[in-house]
């Protein structure tokens, strides 16, 4: 459905934000076309020329306000399917706490982030989301662990589908690698470091271990992660990592 340009051009939420925010105008540059309503209705957007950081778009949806996407985040958003895939932005692009990165949060409904796109200098941007994961999925798990500052670190893949679940790979908070896997039977759990390396060597969720059913936890003399078919244990004294169907 397309609403007339005349109606949208007079006092729309997008116009109000753009006209009242000099920094936003400098970031996005001039509009390159009229404001329009998305086909599904209720989402309004306007494209902008976007110097100095590349083309941008302003989005408006009732209840979440007006927010922009531009540059690499916008490019990634559209590469994965646009706002129908990611949801609309519910923040402007924001700086991360460290490493000069940037992020935007998205949602298909409401004001709670259900998806995010993150990048840091020298890397591509990656999309992390909860969609299709029963309300508490990979994105929520990552958020609850303090985003890129936590035990899983920065995303290194998009959230990817599997035959019976989803996964995301991350740098790990210690830069030794981490993953979060979700399935309907097991929920969302993270696997880190050397334990993750062993599980990967065996074949990830396709191995006899299957999906993780716990996060990594401390045991006397090391750490362990539990899986549907067994466990993987790291021995802090020897550095050895072992897997077993009986734990």
TrEMBL record:
The superkingdom of the source organism is: Bacteria
Pfam families per UniProt: LGFP
Q: Where does the record place the region Disordered?
A: 28-55
Q: What is this protein called?
A: LGFP repeat-containing protein
Organism from which the protein derives: Nocardia mangyaensis
């Amino acid at each position: 459905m397309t609403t007339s340009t005349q109606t949208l051009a007079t006092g729309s939420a997008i116009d109000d934000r753009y006209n009242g925010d000099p920094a936003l105008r400098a970031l996005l540059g001039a509009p390159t076309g009229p404001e329009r309503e998305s086909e599904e209705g209720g989402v309004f957007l306007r494209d902008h020329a976007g110097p100095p950081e590349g083309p941008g778009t302003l989005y408006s949806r009732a209840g979440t306000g007006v927010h922009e996407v531009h540059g690499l985040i916008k490019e990634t958003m559209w590469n994965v399917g646009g706002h129908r895939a990611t949801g609309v932005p519910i923040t402007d692009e924001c700086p991360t706490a460290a490493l000069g990165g940037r992020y935007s949060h998205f949602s298909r409904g409401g004001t709670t982030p259900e998806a995010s796109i993150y990048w840091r200098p020298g890397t591509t941007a990656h999309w992390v989301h909860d969609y299709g994961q029963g309300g508490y999925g990979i994105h929520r798990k990552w958020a609850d662990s303090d985003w890129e500052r936590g035990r899983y670190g920065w995303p290194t893949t998009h959230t990817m589908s599997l035959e019976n679940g989803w996964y995301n790979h991350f740098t790990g908070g210690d830069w030794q690698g981490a993953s979060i896997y979700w399935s309907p039977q097991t929920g969302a759990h993270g696997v880190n470091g050397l334990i993750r390396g062993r599980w990967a060597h065996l074949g990830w969720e396709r191995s006899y271990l299957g999906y993780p059913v716990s996060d990594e936890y401390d045991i006397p003399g090391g750490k362990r992660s539990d899986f549907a078919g067994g466990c993987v244990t790291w021995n802090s004294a020897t550095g050895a990592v072992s897997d077993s169907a009986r734990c």
